[in-house]
Amino acid sequence: MATFSVILPAAGSSSRFKDKHYKKPYAVLAGRAVWLHSAERFLARDDVKQCILVIAQEDRSDFQMKFGANVAILGIDVVEGGAERSDSVARGLEKVRDDVDYVVVHDAARPCVAEEWIDRVFAEATKSGAAILGVPVQATLKRVSSQHVVEETVSREGIWEAQTPQVFRRKLISDAFARRGELSATDEAQLVEQTGHAISVVTGSRLNLKITTKEDLRLAEQVLKVLPKPKLDKAPHPFADDDMWR
């Protein structure tokens, strides 16, 4: 059986979330933090041998106070990220165990991923070495100037929205990061693209939304009601009903 390490980036500034109390990975969603929902989707799997959460350095103290028991009980590794997403994932890669076959990167703020989608992208990655979830763009696309004037309508043919999880053979993603230079990639697939390795796209779902705004948080709460709940052997959140992240 192929084995996987999961990196959950949660070190961003959450500037678009606009909440004075919470960054989006720590916002309360259906009784527990957003990042815990994301982690639970992988911790319940036998093929996942490691889960690494990447947090911002300035959040370390508050995170430990709030979630120290969770990471201890669940066996999650916590590392501090860098200035950009790529820097944070690179820090996570440094903690990946040598005995795992594949590295998974999944947004900590994408809590509505279903087991079925994870199964599909994991299976494809074991065949091709690199696979991501994605959905074809359906809306009409406009290129707009800095003055908010439409410049052109862009064809959506062949245009997909990338999602996570993104799954890569461990050596492939390690080599891609070693060669990234000054490129500040917005996802890990972009770095792997630079190596020339083909990346398979597995059809995901629009329900696999990434929380960016408060409106997304409300939508995610409704989506969670229709997704099957992961079965964990351990309690994911000893303090599920409190509100300490203030």
Calculate the terminal CA-CA distance, rounded to whole Å: 43 Å
- Choose one word for the global shape: globular
**Which value, in Å, is the CA radius of gyration?**
18 Å
CATH class: Alpha Beta
Number of helical segments with 4 or more residues: 7
Largest sheet: 7 strands, mixed
CATH topology: Spore Coat Polysaccharide Biosynthesis Protein SpsA, Chain A
Question: Stretches where pLDDT falls below 50 for ≥5 residues?
Answer: none
Q: Superfamily at the CATH H level?
A: Spore Coat Polysaccharide Biosynthesis Protein SpsA, Chain A
Structural class: alpha/beta
Total number of beta strands: 11
Provide the succession of SSEs. EEEHEHEHEHEEEEHHEH
CATH-level-2 architecture:
Alpha-Beta Complex
Helical fraction equals 25-40%
How many structural units, i.e. domains? 1
The pLDDT mean sits at 91
User: Could you give the order of strands across the largest sheet?
Assistant: 5-4-1-6-10-7-11
Strand content: 15-25%
Structure at a glance:
With 246 residues, the chain is α/β, with parallel strands linked by helices. It has a single domain, classed as Spore Coat Polysaccharide Biosynthesis Protein SpsA, Chain A (Alpha-Beta Complex), CATH 3.90.550.10. The chain contains seven helices and eleven strands.
Task: Write up what this structure looks like.
This protein has 246 residues and is α/β, with parallel strands linked by helices. The chain has a single domain (4-226), classed as Alpha-Beta Complex (Spore Coat Polysaccharide Biosynthesis Protein SpsA, Chain A). It contains seven helices and eleven strands. The protein has helices at residues 34-43, 60-74, 85-93, 115-128, 170-178, 188-193, 214-226, and strands at 4-10, 28-29, 32-33, 48-55, 77-80, 102-105, 130-136, 141-144, 150-154, 160-169, 200-203. The chain has a seven-stranded mixed β-sheet with strand order 5-4-1-6-10-7-11, with helices on both faces. The longest helix is centred in the N-terminal third of the chain and has 15 residues, at 60-74. The radius of gyration is 18 Å and the shape is globular. The N and C termini lie far apart (43 Å).
